[in-house]
Amino acid sequence: MQFLYVQKPRILWKQGKVQLAEGMLSEAYTLFSEAFSILQQVTGPMHREVANCCRYLAMVLYHAGDMAGAIIQQHKELIINERCLGLDHPDTAHSYGNMALFYHGLNQTDLALRHMSRALLLLSLSSGPDHPDVAATFINVAMMYQDIGKMNTALRYLQEALKKNERLLGEEHIQTAVCYHALAIAFNCMGAFKLSHQHEKKTYDILVKQLGEEDSRTQDSQNWMKTFKARELQMNAQKQKGQTLDATSAQKAIDILKANPDLLHAFQAAAAAAGGSGSGSSSSSINKSLNAAIAGETLPRGRGVDERAARAAAEVRKKAAARGLLIRPHGVPAQALPPFTQLLDIINSGATLDPVNKEEAGGVNNEANGQSCNDPVDKHKDQTSGQDQAPIGLGKGLKSLDAKKEKAKAKVAA
Asked: Which of 120, 227, 272, 274 has the lowest tally of Cβ within 10 angstroms?
């Protein structure tokens, strides 16, 4: 009679496995639950077959989306295996690995990685470090690190798993193909679609040899290959489109400079001002580049710098400074320049100045001429002093020299 009670749970257990494989979760759960209740009465709660029923119940609940229930059942299996089989048994290590997967399903990745490290330790004790189960656990650990964005760590685990599988199982084993597929997914997450396609191609070749072209796993691998190839082509097209847009934007910027000579002069003045504190050759080369861009010419590319042109540019700046044309009081830009970031945007996007920024540029010009854009101004004062103001873009010009002469005379008189 007891023999019949022992055989019936095993029959129910086998039927439940078939139902689970076919995706009939409710029927599988009913069969495993019945087997579990019978085994508890016959063998007691602390038995290996009870642990197996708990494991399959956890799997059914996991596929049904009930993570909390799956963890409860898996914890039962873990306790039974620890007490009946011991810590140094492969089934106990697998119990920790399954617990880690269920915790990862609940987005508790830290706790999952803790259980995975425990599983790796027990597998190393029970089976040794060079075992296919260790490589499979490495793949699961890599997937967890991949989900939290630590791609470098994930790649290290996957490469180590690939080495172990190729050494222990061979280069054409299905588990090796699983490693190649995991690497393809990792490279896809990193945006390296070409590497993804290469690794998935190796997966496909292995599956064709082992399973044939008609197998569902082989067809899935082929679909992945098509997906990675399409993404690679899309990325290359975007790169080419970006290069075309850059060339178009540069041409638009040149057209804007041709249509607005004042803007070109502003750039040249800014380059000259920047070169005033540095080397003269840099400002002259910038001016030559701008002039060449406007004229539609290309500059000869040599290793050295034209020293004569640099000296000539330095002499021109000295003469201009002697005349007071480039004197800038209080470090204010001498030209009526719009904000420099806006000028860079014009070059990058080929856009024109919008009216709002033109008003801001006008405010900068007023400040450059000694007048704040936020202060109230007397209209009569503007009308009387408008004739004596310096030209726009040159600051106070020679008036600053007159002010310095008056200060010097006052000191001499004192």
From this structure: 274
The answer to whether 327 and 397 are in contact (CB under 8 A) is: yes
Contacts of residue 342, defined as CB under 8 A and 6 or more positions apart, other chains included, come to 353, 357, 361
Band (165; pLDDT cuts 50, 70, 90):
very high
Q: Which of 167, 204, 164, 166 is nearest to 184 (CA)?
A: 204
Query: Which residues 6+ apart lie within 8 Å of 162 measured at CB?
Result: 176, 179, 180, 183
- Distance separating alpha carbons of residues 327 and 209, to the nearest angstrom: 80
- Is the predicted pLDDT of residue 284 greater than 50, yes or no? yes
Beta carbons within 8 Å of 46's beta carbon, 6+ residues apart:
80, 83, 84
R_g over Cα of the chain? 39
The runs of H, that is alpha helices, within 212-260 are 216-259
Q: Check residue 247 and give its pLDDT.
A: 66
**CATH number, residue 195:** 1.25.40.10
- Predicted TM-score (pTM) of the model is 0.56
Q: How many domains does the chain have?
A: 3
How far apart (Å, rounded) are the C-alpha atoms in residues 55 and 105?
A: 16
For residue 350, give every residue at least 6 positions away whose Cβ sits within 8 Å of its Cβ, in sequence order, or none: 248, 249, 250, 251, 252, 253, 255, 256
Q: Are 74 and 55 in contact (CB under 8 A)?
A: yes
HSE-up of residue 20 (Cα within 13 Å, Cβ side) = 22
Element housing 59 (H / E): helix 48-64
Q: How far is residue 189's CA from residue 148's CA, in Å, rounded to a whole number?
A: 12
Domain-embedded: residue 293: no
For 115, the token pair is: 């259980």
First to last CA, the chain: 128
Same-domain pairing of 112 and 153: no
- The SS3 assignment for 101 reads helix
Cβ-proximal residues to 26 (8 Å cutoff; 6+ apart), any chain:
none
Q: What is the tally of helices (H) and strands (E) in the chain?
A: 18, 0
Considering only 10-14, 82-86, 113-117, which range has the smallest mean pLDDT?
10-14
Q: What is the pLDDT of residues 166-223, one digit of tens each?
A: 999 999 999 999 999 999 999 998 888 899 999 999 999 999 999 998 999 999 999 9
Amino acid identity of residue 271, one-letter, is A
- Whether residues 358 and 400 fall in one domain: yes
Residue with tokens 């190729």: 166
The single residue listed with the structure tokens 């975007």 is: 238
Average pLDDT of span 84-101: 91
